[in-house]
Specification:
Blueprint: E1 6-11, H1 14-25, E2 28-29, H2 33-44, E3 53-56, E4 59-62, E5 65-69, E6 77-82, E7 95-97, H3 104-113, E8 117-122, E9 129-133, E10 139-142
Parallel strand pairs: 1-6, 7-10
Antiparallel strand pairs: 2-5, 3-4, 5-6, 8-9, 9-10
Amino acid sequence: MDVSLQVTFDTADPHAQADFWAAVLGYEVENGPDVSAFVDSLVESGRLAPEERIYRNGRSLFAVAAAAHDPAGTGPRLYFQKVPEGKVVKNRVHLDLNVGADRALAEVARVEALGATRLWVTDDRGPVTYTMQDPEGNEFCIS
């Protein structure tokens, strides 16, 4: 079966979240000249209102969406869409970053430096697992 996987995040700031997760996973944010040209063409054709475009680092981008992809092409694409409401309860889906016991603490420190928050540590289901939050409060795990 030929299926590609995209993980979608509801977010208040899609561009900040794309930057955060790209840095965490070694992904590339999709904000190059091709995206900029596409956004500009949509505005010029009237299919996208001018206020739905933002400028970031000198490029036109969608105001309400951002994406990042694995440059190696093996991981899922990440898509971030702006929603009006904030996160209220525990997310029903989360990412697990499996880096190995020898690298877990270093990875926790690295993602904390990027803006993540450590919530708790458990080992009740196997390996030591660090439950974290991204800058908007979405939980993820490192083990």
